[in-house]
Write a structure and sequence with these properties.
It is globular, with a radius of gyration of 17 Å. Strand 3, helix 3 and strand 4 form a beta-alpha-beta unit. It has one domain: 3-Layer(aba) Sandwich (Rossmann fold), CATH 3.40.50.12780. The chain has about 220 residues and is an alpha/beta fold. This is AMP-binding enzyme.
Length: about 220
Amino acid sequence: MSGIAFRELSPVSFLERAAAVFADRPAVVDGTRRDTYAQLWDRAQRLAGLLAARGIRPGDRVAVLSPNTHLLLEAHYGVPLAGAVLVALNTRLAPSEIAYILDHSGASLVLVDAEHRDALGEPPIPVIDSGDYDALVDAAEPHRVEVTDERSLLSINYTSGTTGRPKGVMYHHRGAYLQALAMAYHAKLDTSSHYLWTLPMFHTKQYCRELPSPVTA
């Protein structure tokens, strides 16, 4: 139909819409911190700007080692807004397993919560600690890389490695978008819902074959 623009599917668009339609509604409750959808959308774009200023380019891997804080939530949007691929690390893994995932995924930068800084060790790539994170994001310029292929890589989620080395599951933008729609329907969420997320955001229960190193889209 003429006049209707095609748009690649990406879960980032859910936050963009929420910021426009429900700008002043609460989006994040993290301890004493309260952010609206408009604020979360702004911070996600500024995180993308921070990553771009640190040399992150489309296709690069950005790892995050954090419990369920606003840092990890913002990374789920800010990393793809930079055109990069999110690698959310399991905080329960041993330092050797974390080091393996950083190498296997080809991560270019790590965002880390100060609580888990020791488990990260001294990786051979840049690290942004949560102690500096908020000030750096606030000072960054908003940035966005448009998704031009909805089947491009969005994230790599790693298993716990209980039967061997951790294995990576690759998600693309389209798959994550459709899964989000399915979960909203399954949970019967609507505009009056208040949803409490309790599972670790790094968690995955997928089983897969082991991927070659480094992982490529």
